[in-house]
């Protein structure tokens, strides 16, 4: 196909990209379905609750949270609106920045997260980890760590640490 050659991609390179996208989407769809059926909790909501639970004090600035869950600021605002309506998070004003807001994990949010986590982890195991042997998992980990580090350096978007090897400490809370 000339379009591929014109853009400098081989058919094999494009196939790898598409396979990566499809694998991620298929696993995410399965997780979404399982979380909705068992806990009435969309995957994006689970990810927000998990990020808040892992953050110091169970809270993150909205901008930092949007970066961590890979949502636009407006998309995160709408999601936090729904989670707040459901009592799973609260919002707090930032004392040092009148425009800044924190999303804070509530007790009901922590309880909902605790209920949903076994389903989430079983889904990851069943739809991803159990399909690979230990060496393949190590290879994927190395490749994704390399990709994450290079993307972080190239894009300067602050996401490199979070896409790294998974062993480094969570990104620091950039709140004042």
UniProtKB/TrEMBL annotation:
Q: Does the keyword Cytoplasm apply?
A: no
GO molecular function (one):
DNA-binding transcription factor activity
Alphabetical keyword list: DNA-binding
The record's annotation in InterPro entries points to: HTH_MarR-typ (IPR000835), MarR/SlyA-like (IPR039422), WH-like_DNA-bd_sf (IPR036388), WH_DNA-bd_sf (IPR036390)
Q: Does the keyword Repeat apply?
A: no
* GO term, biological process aspect, one: response to stress
- HTH marR-type domain residues are 13-149
Q: Which Gene3D superfamilies match?
A: Winged helix-like DNA-binding domain superfamily/Winged helix DNA-binding domain
**What is the native source organism of this protein?**
Nonomuraea rubra
Signal sequence extent: none
Q: What is this protein called?
A: DNA-binding MarR family transcriptional regulator
């Amino acid at each position: 196909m000339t379009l591929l050659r014109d853009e400098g991609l081989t058919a094999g390179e494009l196939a790898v990209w598409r396979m990566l996208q499809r694998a991620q989407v298929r696993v995410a769809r399965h997780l979404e379905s399982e979380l909705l059926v068992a806990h009435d909790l969309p995957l994006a909501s689970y990810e927000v609750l998990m990020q808040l639970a892992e953050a110091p004090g169970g809270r993150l600035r909205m901008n930092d949270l949007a970066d961590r869950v890979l949502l636009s600021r407006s998309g995160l605002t709408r999601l936090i609106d729904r989670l707040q309506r459901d009592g799973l998070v609260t919002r707090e004003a930032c004392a040092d920045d009148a425009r800044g807001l924190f999303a804070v994990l509530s007790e009901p949010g922590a309880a909902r997260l605790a209920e949903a986590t076994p389903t989430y982890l079983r889904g990851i195991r069943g739809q991803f980890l159990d399909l690979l042997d230990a060496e393949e998992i190590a290879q994927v980990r190395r490749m994704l760590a390399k990709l994450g580090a290079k993307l972080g350096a190239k894009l300067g978007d602050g996401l490199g640490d979070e896409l790294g090897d998974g062993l480094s400490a969570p990104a620091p809370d950039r709140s004042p």
